Amino acid sequence: MKEDPLYKSRKVITIGVVSELTGLSERQIRYYEERKLIFPERTERGNRKYSFSDVERLIDIANKRDEGVRTYEIRQEMLKDKKREDDAKIRNQMLRGQLNARFGIPKGKN
Amino acid sequence: MKEDPLYKSRKVITIGVVSELTGLSERQIRYYEERKLIFPERTERGNRKYSFSDVERLIDIANKRDEGVRTYEIRQEMLKDKKREDDAKIRNQMLRGQLNARFGIPKGKN
DNA sequence: CGTGTAAGGAATTCTGACACG
DNA sequence: CGTGTAAGGAATTCTGACACG
Q1: pLDDT digits 0-9 by tens, B89-104
Q2: How far is A34 from chain B (nearest CA, A)?
Q3: Distance from A47 to chain B by nearest Cα, in Å?
Q4: CA distances to A72, B32, B61, B72, B73 from B11, in Å
Q5: What distance in Å separates the CA atoms of residue B94 and residue B80, rounded to the nearest whole number?
Q6: Is the Cα dihedral A55, A59, A65, A69 positive or negative?
Q7: How far is CA A86 from CA A6, A52, A77, B41, in A?
Q8: Residue B110 above 70 pLDDT?
Q9: B13-103: what fold?
Q10: How many Å apart are CA B61 and CA B55, to the nearest integer?
Q11: Taking the alpha carbons of B73, B49, A34, A90 in that order, is the dihedral positive or negative?
Q12: HEC string of B49-107?
């Protein structure tokens, strides 16, 4: 529930800088967004803003592409990973629920 | 000696976003640079790039200014703090040198 | 499919200066 | 001193499209 620093996930980097950081062309970066591999925010009038996480993800994508992996496949992998995380989260919540119901675990912050 | 992530100190944020983040006008942000309170890097053709640290420093400056502190005074405080840090660093190095000379402390990463 | 490019426009950023107080 | 603003230019970013393979 923290949300103050999170330097890594704040979307503040413009596409030009992301291009410098990743070595990808702006065209490629926009295309990967079109293929739903990356989700930048926008400034008021529409300029894309990325986070450091996005930059790392893009570098990852670039490596996969170099190995010949298609954007569609990269997206599939992403979704698979996402599902794993979500499932783990749910299992965790169920466990908490069980423990809480039986032993009354106090409101610990994790 | 680490230098990989350092999300907080990487200079990647353009002045427009910094303005949004801090609530300061671009004019003010540039002026504080002129007064040597802040030191952005530049892109190849000259656009300013700031770090999250810079953003925090600017918010600090804005608070001081609200209290009526002059830019010159803010700079003095900064230099004083800097000196303290540098002195501490030197004392630390001397201590290491002493210990190392007498007891041969191995190459610890700290 | 993945990426380059030219196109045209709108917003960004830069510097140096004048203004006011 | 600290900040606003108009000025003019150069670089940025955006979208939709055509191209190639």
Answers
A1: 999 999 999 998 888 7
A2: 24
A3: 10
A4: 33, 17, 18, 24, 25
A5: 21
A6: negative
A7: 21, 22, 14, 40
A8: no
A9: Multidrug-efflux Transporter Regulator; Chain: A; Domain 2 (1.10.1660)
A10: 10
A11: negative
A12: EECHHHHHHHHHHHHHHHCCCCHHHHHHHHHHHHHHHHHHHHHHHHHHHHHHHHHCCCC
- Residue range B21-28: mean pLDDT, rounded: 98
D strand bases under 7 Å from protein CB: 1-5, 10-15
Burial A1-40 (b: 16+ CB within 10 A, else e): eeeeeebeebbbbbbbbbbebbebeeebbeebbeeebbeb
CA distance B108 to B110: 5
Residue type, A104: G
Are residues A63 and A82 in contact, defined by beta-carbon separation less than 8 angstroms? no
User: How far from B109 is each of A20, B2, B6, B9, B80, CA to CA, in Å?
Assistant: 31, 10, 18, 21, 28
CA–C1' gap, B53 and C20, in angstroms: 33
Residue A16 identity (one-letter amino acid): G
When mean pLDDT is compared across A25-34, A95-104, B86-95, the lowest value belongs to A95-104
Contact A55, A63 (CB under 8 A): no
